[in-house]
Amino acid sequence: MPKRFVVVASEFPDLPRFPAGFELAEALTVAAQQLHDTVTPHSTMRTAVRLAVHLLPGADHAGISVIERSQHRHTVAWTDEVVRSAETGPTGREQVPYWEQLWSAPVVRLEDSEADDGGAPLAELGLRSALSLRLRTDRRRLTVLTAYAHKPRAFDEAATRVGRLFTAHVSLALDSATVREQLTEAMRTRDLIGQATGILMERMDMDAAEAFESLIKASQRENVKLRDLARRIVGTSQTP
């Protein structure tokens, strides 16, 4: 079960709410610092939704969701409960229609939540506009940051440009946090991974670098954590 966070959209004293021009550059710099100060992907996303409300003109709420190709999705960070309601839907599994477009486009703007492309449920929650921006995508899953507004047509081209600049910073910070988390996890389990590497060296007649690379590729191919794969290899070796 993925971790979930409720985040209060508190004030950032050094961050202009609706930046423009040089103020935008300064605001994005401050935002980038806030994002890169986070230490885990989850804390990065928590910070991102808070910042999104302050940086994106017209935004009242924000959330980040992960969407699977299987249509399953879960919201991992949000500023307010209304975001969870907007992104979960009646069953918790139905796809938000305009999110489908993010598999092929980086941005989707819903100018009036009473439109025919899936905005009516938002209107029932008092939300009239949505701006969805792609953070990550691969063949299996999509990570989306969505800003919501109570006003119709709240997000114009300027808001979209700010959103794309901001999500570029979020994506970089998220990648960095993910790498740091993976490295930390690798250090914690280095003995286990070392044992698995040694077993592969013996079984496959390869050197240490080749064995470790083989372990990494197998982890990615099977979509299994390196630690779990190493534990499986060591456990198999120890079985009489």
Helix content: 40-55%
The number of distinct helices, counting runs of at least 4 residues, comes to 8
Major pleated sheet: 6 strands, mixed
Can you tell me the residue ranges where pLDDT is under 50 for at least 5 consecutive residues? 1-12
Strand order, biggest sheet?
A: 1-3-2-6-5-4
Alpha-carbon Rg, integer: 21 Å
Strand portion:
15-25%
Form type: elongated
Regarding quaternary structure, how should these chains be classified?
A: single chain
Report a brief summary of the structure.
By secondary structure, the chain is an alpha+beta fold. The chain is 49% helix and 16% strand. Strand 5 and strand 6 form a beta hairpin.
Structure report:
The chain has 240 residues and is α+β, with helices and mostly antiparallel strands. It is 49% helix and 16% strand. It is built from 8 helices and 6 strands; from the N terminus they run βααββαβαββαααα. A 6-stranded mixed β-sheet has the order 1-3-2-6-5-4, with helices on both faces. α2 runs antiparallel to α5 (157-188). 34% of the residues are buried. The model is unreliable at 1-12 (pLDDT under 50).
